Structures are given as C-alpha cells and as structure tokens.
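User: quick one, sequence for these tokens?
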C-alpha cells in the first residue's frame, strides 16, 4: 500500500494535477486598478493611460490610415508567398499557455463564423511555457513547433500575413516600470522575429494579459498582468513615433516589423464592471489549480472579444470579413471612420475625417438599414472630427442591445463600421 500510494503521488505531481494548496484565491475580486481604456490621460505611477498616445483609445489618424491601406492590400497567397486567388490569408496566434488556451477556443468559432472570408485560414500556433524572453530568439525550439503546426494545416511560414500576439514573462520580480520595460523590449524582439520568420506578415495585433487577481502562483500575478498593458502600449507608441527598429514601411527604410496595433484589450478589475462594455472577470472564469490560466468562461470571453474585433476593426474588415455575407466594408477613400469601444454599454465615441470638400452625413443604422440615430452632416475639410452617440434613438429612447452599423456617407464614398451594443448605461 505504501508503495502504491507513493507511485500515485509521484504520478499526480508529474502530470501537474492541481492540489488544494494551489487553489484559486477567490477573494481577489478586485485590485483597485483602473483599466488602461478607462485611465485615459490620468496616470499610473506617473505613466498616462489610454491604449494610444495622448491618453486616447483610438489609433492616431496617420497610423490608422497606414493600417487600413495595408489591410486593403492583403489578399490570398500560396504557400510560396505568391499571389493566388486560390490561396489563403493565414492568421496565427503566437504566445504562451493562456494564448493557446484562448485561441484554441477561438478557432472553431472562426471556422463557423458566417462573416469570415472563406479564404482566411486560422491556425493556433501558441504553446504553453513560451514566454516573451524565450521566443524572441528566432532559433528557439518553439518556432519548430510553429512551423510544424503550419505544415499540419497545409500552410507555410510564407503564407502567414496576420498575427495575434499575446505574451508575458514568467515570475517577474523587478517591479514597475522595470519588469514592464523588460517585457516591452522582449516584445519588440518578438515582432522583429516575426518579420524574419514570416516575411509576408503585414499586421500584428497585440493583447495584454487578462485579470490575475485570483492567482495563487508567482507565474504572473497582479499587478504584473495589469502592467503588461503598458508594455504593449509603449511598444506600439514606439512604432507610431518612428522607432527605426520597428519600421513597417518600405518607403522609410528597411522593414523590421509588421504594422502594430492593439487587438482587444482584455483586462478588467475582477468583478468591477469595466466602463464602456461591462466586462468582468469571475473566479469561475479561471482554472481552480492556480487562478491564472483561463477556464471555459475566460476562454469564451476572450474569443468573443477577438471575434468582435475582427468584425469591426477597420484594419481587419478588408481581409477577414467575407464580401459574400453582404456586410458593409470600408471603401477606398480619403475619409476615415473609427468607432469605439465595441462591444459598448452606453455611449460610443466616433471619430471621422471626411475628405476636404466632400459633403458628409453620419448616421447609426440597425441591421435592417433603418436610420435610428442622425449624428450630423456638413462639408469635410480633411480634419479629424468627433461625435458621441449616447445609445439612444432620435426620439430619445434607449437603443436595444444588438448589432448596429455606424455609416459615414460622403459625396462619393460610404464607410461603415460594425458596432455591438450591450445596452444602455
């Protein structure tokens, strides 16, 4: 009996089964930290929030325009990287255990998504244990696994054009901003490695960690999970401000990296509903073994946010959304239209820049094409404008939860963005 018990204990440890001592800390329901999307121009330890420079959650106009142009140029290619109408647009995940657990839930969602362009091939290439500090090395063994997974789906590194990157470093212990700066630098090396290994990659969307207040290990607890958002923010700001080592534009020299932007921002403060979309993280969303890795609840939430992002973002619609489903897509125009947040609970911010001399009209439509909100009209001068829709129809009644279109009609173009409304505030 003693021998048998010893063997069973050894087997349990070897397989990594959860133990009672490592159970989730379900008392960690909030930290008091403010999501970057809600922090805005306010600061965390002296550093301003917002996803992008200036405390805003919207991409700067020039960076957004560059991303839209790149997205409109993405087309199916074959496994040798040559343009081919019968080829694929390959979207892969890159990252650690949380990333593969979330993206492996997303893949079947995408495969059955009626809005997905059938030319888009979605492949999970993330792997447990692969931190940013490890995979920044293009010779690291992880990349052999990535190549094998691509081969397994009859694809190749030359066919990859879009990446979802979500990373962290294990057991950070140097505090803020030191550990965050290290992660930012490692992420910079990772995106340069992406360009080396996948020469045709055009876009990399980055997300930071989900909530880790229920964690009971030192792997990556709070506040490191929260602070990882600053690493992503600072890296993208570096590209926006022209860091040579992150150049994506062949017109400005050697291309070192894909075009970078935020994918869905995933952090919310536990049970405190996030402003704008009401996102929360419950203890049951996480694996009971450590409170760090996502269980079904968290995997589904992340997958839904990623799917909504691909449906709505101006740099994803041109290549991800199928023209066969009749969903409006951005038209080539001097105008631009950005809507956020989406999903939203309550008011939505809309920024747009009608081309100079073009008459414009901004409306919110339901899925049947009926106008429920008239947000203004005028003549464009090329400058950036903004409107706030308070999630009410023209009669002042709260709009029902559901899917809407924000439409900017100019003299010769129509731009639309999908908006998911969760309900009024």
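Assistant:
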């Amino acid at each position: 009996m003693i021998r048998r018990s010893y063997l069973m204990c050894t087997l349990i440890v070897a397989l990594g089964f959860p133990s009672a001592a490592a159970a989730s800390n379900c008392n960690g329901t909030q930290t008091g930290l403010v999501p970057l999307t809600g922090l805005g121009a306010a600061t965390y330890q002296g550093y301003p929030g917002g996803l992008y420079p200036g405390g805003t959650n919207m991409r700067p106009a020039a960076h957004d325009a560059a991303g839209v142009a790149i997205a409109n140029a993405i087309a199916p290619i074959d496994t040798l990287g040559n343009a081919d109408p019968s080829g694929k647009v390959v979207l892969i995940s890159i990252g650690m255990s949380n990333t593969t657990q979330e993206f492996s839930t997303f893949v079947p969602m995408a495969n059955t998504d009626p809005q997905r362009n059938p030319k888009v091939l979605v492949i999970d290439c993330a792997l447990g244990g692969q931190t940013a500090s490890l995979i920044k090395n293009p010779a690291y063994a992880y990349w052999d696994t990535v190549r094998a997974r691509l081969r397994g789906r009859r694809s190749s590194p030359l066919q990859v054009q879009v990446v979802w990157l979500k990373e962290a470093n294990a057991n950070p212990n140097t505090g803020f901003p030191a550990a965050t700066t290290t992660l930012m630098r490692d992420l910079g090396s990772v995106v340069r490695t992406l360009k080396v290994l996948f020469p045709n990659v055009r876009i990399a969307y980055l997300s930071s960690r989900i909530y880790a207040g229920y964690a009971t290990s030192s792997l990556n607890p709070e506040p490191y999970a929260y602070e990882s958002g600053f690493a992503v923010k600072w890296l993208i700001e570096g590209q926006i401000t022209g860091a040579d080592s992150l150049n994506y534009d062949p017109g400005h020299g050697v291309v070192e990296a894909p075009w970078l932007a935020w994918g869905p921002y995933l952090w919310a403060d536990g049970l405190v509903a996030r402003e704008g979309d009401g996102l929360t993280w419950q203890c049951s969303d996480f694996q009971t073994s450590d409170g760090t890795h996502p269980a079904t609840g968290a995997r589904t939430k992340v997958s839904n946010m990623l799917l909504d992002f691909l449906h709505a973002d101006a740099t994803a619609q041109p290549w991800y959304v199928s023209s066969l489903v009749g969903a409006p897509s951005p038209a080539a125009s001097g105008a631009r239209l950005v809507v956020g947040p989406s999903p939203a609970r309550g008011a939505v911010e809309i920024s747009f820049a009608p081309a100079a001399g073009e008459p414009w009209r901004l409306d919110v439509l339901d899925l049947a094409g009926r106008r429920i909100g008239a947000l203004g009209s005028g003549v464009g001068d090329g400058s950036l404008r903004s409107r706030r829709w308070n999630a009410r129809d023209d009669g002042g009644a709260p709009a029902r939860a559901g899917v809407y279109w924000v439409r900017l009609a100019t003299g010769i173009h129509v731009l639309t963005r999908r908006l998911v409304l969760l309900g009024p505030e």
